[in-house]
Amino acid sequence: MNAVLLISLALVLVPLATSTTSLVRCRVRALANCDRTKKVCLRFSRTNLCELFRNECQQKLANCNNNGGLTQAFYEKANLKYCKGLSMNQRLPCASI
pTM for the full model? Predict the structure, then answer.
């Protein structure tokens, strides 16, 4: 009975630890390879929603947090003019050009 309980617990905890490790790796990589000097406009996934980020590091961290390998949600860079009129970290429809 105890052996079954231990095996069941291990089957639950191992995937959890693996996804946490992947998230940490993603964050370390994101912070090591990003530009902290300029604002970036990002489009969310395949929608018409844009968000203005303080720098590229925020975008890369957001991608780690959103997908971490688990979902298909992600940010992709868009021209800064699509975020015209947006406040920082506010996801709204992209400006039409």
Answer: 0.62
